[in-house]
Amino acid sequence: MRRLALLLPPLLWLGVVYAGSLLALVSQSFFRLDDFTGQVVRVPTLATYRQLLTPANVDIAVRTTVMAALVTVADVVLAFPLAYFMARYAPPRLKAVLTLAVLLPLWSSYLVRVTMWKLILAREGVLSWGLEQAGLTPLLDRLLALPVIGGPSLSISPIGAFLAFTYVWLPYMVLPIQAAIERVPRSMLDASADLGALPARTFRDVTLPLALPGVAAGSIFTFSLTLGDFVVPGALGNSSFFIGQAVLAHQGTAGNIPLAAAFTVIPMAVMAVYLLLARRVGAFDAL
Amino acid sequence: MRSESGVEKAPAGLVVAVGAVLLFLHAPFAVIVLYAMTTEDASFRFPPPGLTLDWFRVAWNRPDVWQALGLSLQVAAVATAAALVLGTLAALAVHGSRFFGREAVSLLLVLPIALPGIVTGIALRSALSLLGLPFSFWTIVVGHATFCVVVVYNNVLARLRRTPASLVEASMDLGASPFVTFRRVVLPALATALVAGGMLAFALSFDEIIVTTFTAGQQETLPIWIFNQLTRPRQRPVTNVVALFVIAATALPILLAHLLTREKGGGKT
């Protein structure tokens, strides 16, 4: 009983303020905006969801989900070697330094890190300059000329948004993978070697499967954070909206909170499916 | 288990990959230092035409910067205080007990960071709109505290799991009341976890923009100020000066929190 008393304040906060707000969100999505008066009509209707399923809005949802998936894959690829090195090879002192090297970018302002990429990717910025010095400007121009992912400069294109997303969420991926690899008992690796497996085989058949919960845990962050972000595409993307921007725009000047609410049901549904899958591979134990 | 781990030598390819990833993580910081000192104030020209420290003075004299900074510090302080209380209580309640709905409670606690920030933001915005409440300092704080609770909760819960239950039992066996046990045994064991959790919560709040956008109305926290500056073409280096300050302001406490918990934890176990 005493435990329940302890639980009461946090439960009230999260149960009433937070869960209550989520409920308000869902109920708003079943209201609709009257086009003539600009007022929200508080009568249950599916009109807003019909509006959500128009091709333009479906495009936004697909674009955002694809970006989240690509960013997650890129982060796994970049994070794995670092995490593996930290868990397996780094002596204690080096490991402490590397942990800090991952934590510091994670905890230094997210917005500042987005700003950095705005500077780096600008048409007149350091990356263009570097490519020019290397004689690769034609390659950059060809990349930017690509339909869908190109744009007038890297700092105004989905490629730029992809790079910035990959950068800002990378630390979230490193730490859970490292923790998962560290939990693989040394004896298991020795057993694998004793049974005649070469190091590559041990890596593929023992380390990799056991690191999977860490990958899944990290991907919860990279996936979820990308789905709901409007800062990166706002600062670096082109005029094609992402879910976050659509939500922001609809609730803002348009005052269409119902449609904004309906939009957020997409990331919630995607994350629900994702969390169920992640739970299967043991991601929650690796968080 | 850890004794032999440092002896093996890493494959050269792995070392190169690690170096490249570290460079990718840290090189951008050099770029922002450089751009805080460029004489070019309307574009991001590289290399900069000249270097100056004048922007630090300009930034210092900008009242809008101070205003945004003040608001961010206040919000972070209040949100952290709320999160410390709520997160610790929740961790104590969930740790080592089985009660009906325990899973649901731990899910509810993790939800604010598991769901995209925009969901929390628009959810609070929907509730404010339904209740007809105006935006204020407190609406920002409520939003921040909601996701800061998780950080404290996670830190405290992790510490509780590593603290042997026998310590509490010994204290009780020796006749200490639950309150005395809490104050003399549990709290000291939690102290560094609380400091670390509090600092992380503070940094999280200080840096938050997604939820804030939906709960702040016209008020500018420092992240919102920076975001608004990104689209403005004049005096761009001022934004970078502020960015440098924000990096230092969030990184230093984190560094301290990290060292604090690491040393204590490593020394005892």
Structure summary:
By secondary structure, chain A is mostly helical. Chain A has helices spanning 2-29, 47-52, 55-88, 92-107, 110-121, 126-133, 137-145, 158-182, 186-194, 199-227, 231-236, 243-251, 257-280, 283-286, and strands at 32-33, 40-41. In chain A, helix 4 (92-107) runs antiparallel to helix 8 (158-182) and helix 10 (199-227) runs antiparallel to helix 13.
Q: What do you see in this structure?
A:
The complex is a heterodimer of chains A (287) and B (269). Chain A has 287 residues and is mainly α. Chain A has one domain: MetI-like fold. Chain A is 76% helix and 1% strand. In chain A, strands 1-2 form a two-stranded antiparallel sheet. In chain A, helix 4 runs antiparallel to helix 8 and helix 9 crosses helix 10 (199-227). The two termini of chain A are 29 Å apart. Chain B is mainly α and 269 residues long. Helix content of chain B is 76%, strand content 0%. Chain B contains eleven helices and no strands. In chain B, helix 7 (165-173) runs antiparallel to helix 8. The longest helix of chain B is centred in the C-terminal third of the chain and has 33 residues, at 236-268. Chain B starts with 11 loop residues before the first helix and ends with a helix. Chains A and B meet through helix 1, helix 3, helix 4, helix 5 and helix 6 of A and helix 1, helix 3, helix 4, helix 5 and helix 6 of B.
Helix content of chain A: over 70%
Mean pLDDT of chain A comes to: 88
* Helix proportion range of chain B: over 70%
Fill in the CATH topology of chain B. Answer: MetI-like fold
- Uncertain runs of chain B are 1-6, 264-269
User: Mind telling me the CATH class of chain B?
Assistant: Mainly Alpha
**Main sheet overview of chain B:** none
Number of domains of chain B: 1
The CATH homologous superfamily of chain B is named MetI-like
Q: Give the overall average pLDDT of chain B.
A: 84
**Of all protein chain pairs, which has the greatest interface, and how many residues does each chain bring to it?**
A-B, 90 and 88 residues
State the low-pLDDT regions of chain A, or none.
Answer: none
Our count of domains of chain A comes out at: 1
| Overall SS class of chain A | mainly alpha
Order of helices and strands of chain B: HHHHHHHHHHH
- Kindly report the spatial arrangement of strands forming the biggest sheet of chain A: 1-2
CATH architectural category of chain A: Orthogonal Bundle
Number of strands of chain B: 0
- CATH architecture term of chain B: Orthogonal Bundle
User: Distance N terminus to C terminus of chain B?
Assistant: 14 Å
Task: Categorize the overall geometry of chain A.
Answer: globular
